[in-house]
Amino acid sequence: MASEDCPLVTLANGVRMPQLGLGVMLINEREQIETAISKALAIGYRAFDTAPVYGNEEGVGQIVKASGIKREEVFLTSKLPNSQHAYGDALKAFNLSMKKLKVDYLDLYLIHWPVPKYDRYCEAWTALEKLYRDGFVRAIGVSNFHEHHLRKIFEMCEIKPMVNQLECNPYLTIEPLRSFCHENGIWPEAWFPLGGPLNGGPPNNLLADQTINSLSKKYGKTPAQVVLRWEIQENVITIPKSSNPSHLEENFSIFDFTICEEDMVLISSLNCDRRVGPHPDKCEDLF
Ligand code: NAD
Taking residues 201-218, what's their average pLDDT? Predict the structure, then answer.
């Protein structure tokens, strides 16, 4: 396995981003971050998805820096906290993330949630546009934005979002929203790509799903690999989380097989709109 195994997607502004990265939510212990990121880099992961609310930007930055891998070979994403949508607050929050990550630019910065209660995400977007124009971030985007939130951004923006990070997996395929994103030059990126932290147990049992398990036998791959491969072939960027070395390897070993069209349709048919995380119109002060 090597970093070259992972395909790069081209965002609307030409920036290239690994289609598979490591999500680091809930990897908080210093030792755990060190093991996870060092192992991931050795396997070939080059993209890391963090956020201030995960409480690990400092650790992520230190370990990436200490790895000796050139800054331009690593793709770092962070996010704007929900309470920081005012223009000046957004600029400050971005600077704090850069400081914690110990970098002088970010690769991707996302508005974490639209938080309709505040109705300030358009104002926040103007701050992201400024950061982008000033060269502090190579690409800008949103997270948890549904079509109506995106349409509001389109009405006022000078630069369209390049990525929309969304809860997405075979139980929540959000096909119309993903199509809308692609039609507008926005790459969908899946969070809870394996069904979320509770996979294998209630409320989401995606990796124990019978269809996924029968395809796992058919392709000689694990259920997690089948699910992640489906996401890759659906033109979604995916960021499974793990700090377990064998899971990290497993999740990266998905570029040596292809799911046939018929099985892709079968996996997509598992959709039951099962959302485990909060609904974007209801997520308010969480972070
Ligand atoms: P996930 O779907 O990646 O599931 C992770 C769970 O699966 C973990 O409990 C992990 O231990 C387990 N796992 C990982 N690899 C496995 C394997 N091969 N076999 C069996 N189990 C395996 O959910 P997640 O970590 O919560 O989400 C991924 C990332 O998405 C987060 O780390 C974070 O970066 C991002 N995220 C973003 C938002 C947002 O609002 N933008 C919300 C939640 C998560």
Answer: 89
